[in-house]
Amino acid sequence: HLLTYHPGDTTYNISKSDKYIRIPAENMIHCYLQERAGQSRGVPPMSVAISSLKMLHGYREAELVAARVGASKMGFFTSPAGDAFSADDIENRVPIMEAEPGTFHQLPDGVNFQQFDPSHPTSAFAEFEKAILRGIASGLGVSYTSLANDLEGVSYSSIRQGTLEDRDHWKMLQSYLIQHFVEPIYRRWLISTMENAVINLPASRFDKFADATIFRARGWQWVDPLKEINAAVVGLNNGIMSMQDVANQYGRDVEETFTQIKSDKDLAENFGLKFAFEPFGEKQPAPAEVDDAISQ
Predict the structure, then answer these.
(1) Less Cβ crowding at N or C end of the chain, within 10 Å?
(2) pTM for the structure as a whole
């Protein structure tokens, strides 16, 4: 049962029968990460951090109220004899006197002023918020620096390690969405367009075109591009990596890379230019030229 409108939208004249629509279960894709055998319903990824998020929101609100109260620093008027106090206004049967900055008031006889100065330790706010955000980051499977956008006190090694772990997590989610969401929708779309002759492909060739399709997620630039490129070159030279492995790290296909390089070469030849580098093959040092007279 699906809502026909967003719950936050302002709607009028919607009956109960128009509020929901029924969709057959076979036409729905219920994506969730299965954590145990026989699990039929998914758990939202942010469910483990909801209590901490609510706690952090309440703490921030309490700190804001405490800061405003501390900045006001009001007080009370006391009278041991119980004499009446002449005030500016009465609120809930309590006399109220309004005060402005830089003003002084003369109190009636027998009335004393008791200052209200709440002391609240504000030095613990930053550490408490950081501790809560660290727990939230752990629950969400991301690094603290990425979640809080806090680069204070991080080193090159620590931020690199956190970034690599984040990217591994994102790659896992990308593979999951491609396998369980993108590919099923694509196969449904492809067979529908073939059967209805929307595209000029016979339905009998469905398996060929469906299995040949590859979805590639986005890639990321490395923290230290020079070191990572040199490491990729070493891996290629030793046969432990392929060109496609390197292209996958940047979210590209090796065929597209080769096509682009060939296009660059053809364009350079059309303009009578020559590359100053050769992108493939090990560079051998040029042989030394020795003068025959000297060698003799």
Answers:
(1) C
(2) 0.62
CA dihedral 216→218→219→220, nearest 10 degrees, is 180
Q: Measured between alpha carbons, how far is residue 253 from residues 34, 170, 237, 248, 272 in Å?
A: 30, 19, 20, 7, 29
Tokens of 169: 């997590």
Confidence of residue 103 (pLDDT cuts 50, 70, 90): low
pLDDT of residue 187: 92
| Residue 118 near residue 28, CB atoms below 8 Å | no
Question: 202 by DSSP, 3-state: which?
Answer: coil
42-88 tens-digit pLDDT: 888 888 889 999 989 998 888 888 877 777 766 766 667 655 555 55
Please, which residues bridge with residue 95 across strands?
90
Q: Which two tokens stand for residue 241?
A: 């990596």
What are phi and psi for residue 138, nearest 5 degrees?
A: -65, -40
CA–CA gap between residue 118 and residue 193 (Å, rounded): 71
pLDDT in tens, 107-143: 666 777 777 776 666 677 888 888 899 999 888 888 8
Question: How far is it, in rounded angstroms, from Cα 295 to Cα 41?
Answer: 83
Q: What is the residue-wise DSSP string for 98-122?
A: ---TT---PPPTT-EEEE-------
Dihedral angle at the C-alpha atoms of 16, 20, 24, 30, nearest 10 degrees? Answer: -140
Q: So what's the pLDDT on residue 181?
A: 92
